[in-house]
């Protein structure tokens, strides 16, 4: 059939414009309205990992936010949910920074059709824990495993409405720094996820600045504190976390930073050792992301980290020039996110 003249002219005129666009990989829900919904999970604060630490064994409620295309968030089933696991010192806000939409990692993923679950881990923000010594890194990994299971089965609830929640056919863990360590430990122990995106983490890359911060925290915890701060001030936090983030982004992050549960702090050493011993058991495809100016995790350790995985495990590594530790909030965040979206499409479809 002959195309109408106006339609043909419109197509020709559009070609130069289209040539300059970066087209995101096709995904169910891409182009749909992005919405958020608060959800809750009932989890047992237990440690089923090899990390040598104890938790209170009680049932707790963990709060999170589903962020994605409307058709997926309100649907019965989602092809893939990305679980975003925050670091110590931060919180779920790290993935949804208020007041700076360009640095809202979860919403910008949703623009490309990806649905994410933004967790507040137990002991942080919307998931409070009265006794910071009542959990630990091993328990955090175990509770993350429970969240993965609940996502697959649809066994969780909207916080404010009695309607069915979507179940996930596939689950990917995206973790930052210690959150990446927790995600890696979960995958190595329970072998229940389809992919890992690990930012600013390696089993052997902690810098002296990172070690000093944990030692200060540990001293406070051993003196009887329930919670302890990694950085001594907002200024120090900004210097350690960022290399290129806009000043406004840094100020908001510094204002929102958290103290950490002492049970998590005091189990970090065992978690490092256990993670190092178990990395070779991971079978899920893995994307390792680093900033070249990270002051907390030495990017030169990336090759050792890559080589620690099982020989048959697909592992991809990328270093972003000029970026610091907080990759989703650095000026290179758009490039980092584009790399993640391409990897998800190429590796998992």
From TrEMBL:
Extent of the signal sequence: 1-28
Gene3D superfamilies hit by this protein: alpha/beta hydrolase
Sequence ranges of Basic and acidic residues compositional bias: 293-309
Region span, Disordered: 293-313
An annotated GO cellular component: membrane
InterPro entries per record: AB_hydrolase_fold, AB_hydrolase_sf
Annotated keywords: Signal
UniProt feature coiled coil, ranges: none
PANTHER family tied to this protein: HYDROLASE, PUTATIVE (AFU_ORTHOLOGUE AFUA_2G14860)-RELATED, MONOACYLGLYCEROL LIPASE
Name of the molecule in the record: Pimeloyl-ACP methyl ester carboxylesterase
Source species: Nocardioides ginsengisegetis
């Amino acid at each position: 059939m002959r195309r109408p003249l106006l339609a043909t002219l419109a197509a020709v005129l559009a070609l130069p414009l289209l040539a300059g666009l970066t087209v995101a990989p096709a995904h169910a829900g891409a182009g749909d309205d992005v919405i958020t919904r608060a959800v809750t999970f009932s989890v047992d604060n237990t440690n089923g990992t090899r990390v040598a630490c104890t938790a209170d064994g009680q049932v707790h409620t963990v709060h999170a936010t589903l962020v994605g295309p409307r058709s997926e968030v309100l649907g019965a089933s989602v092809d893939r949910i990305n679980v975003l696991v925050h670091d110590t010192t931060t919180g779920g806000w790290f993935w949804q920074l208020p007041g700076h939409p360009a640095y809202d990692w979860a919403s910008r993923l949703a623009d490309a059709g990806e649905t994410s679950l933004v967790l507040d881990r137990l002991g942080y923000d919307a998931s409070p824990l009265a006794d910071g010594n009542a959990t630990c890194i091993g328990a955090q990994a175990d509770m993350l495993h429970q969240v993965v299971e609940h996502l697959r089965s649809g066994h969780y609830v909207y916080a404010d409405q009695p309607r069915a929640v979507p179940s996930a056919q596939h689950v990917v863990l995206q973790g930052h720094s210690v959150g990446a360590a927790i995600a890696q430990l979960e995958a190595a122990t329970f072998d229940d996820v389809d992919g890992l995106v690990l930012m600013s983490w390696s089993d052997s890359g902690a810098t002296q600045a990172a070690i000093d911060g944990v030692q200060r925290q540990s001293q406070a915890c051993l003196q009887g504190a329930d919670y302890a701060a990694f950085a001594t001030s907002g200024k120090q936090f900004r210097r350690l976390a960022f290399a290129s983030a806009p000043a406004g982004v840094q100020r908001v992050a510094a204002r929102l930073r958290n103290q950490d549960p002492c049970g998590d702090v005091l189990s970090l050493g065992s978690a490092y050792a256990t993670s190092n011993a178990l990395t070779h058991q991971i079978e899920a495809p893995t994307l390792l992301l680093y900033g070249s100016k990270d002051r907390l995790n030495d990017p030169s350790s990336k090759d050792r980290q890559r080589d620690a995985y099982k020989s048959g495990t697909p592992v991809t590594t990328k270093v972003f020039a000029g970026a610091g530790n907080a990759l989703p909030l650095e000026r290179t965040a758009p490039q980092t996110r584009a790399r993640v979206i391409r990897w998800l499409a190429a590796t998992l479809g």
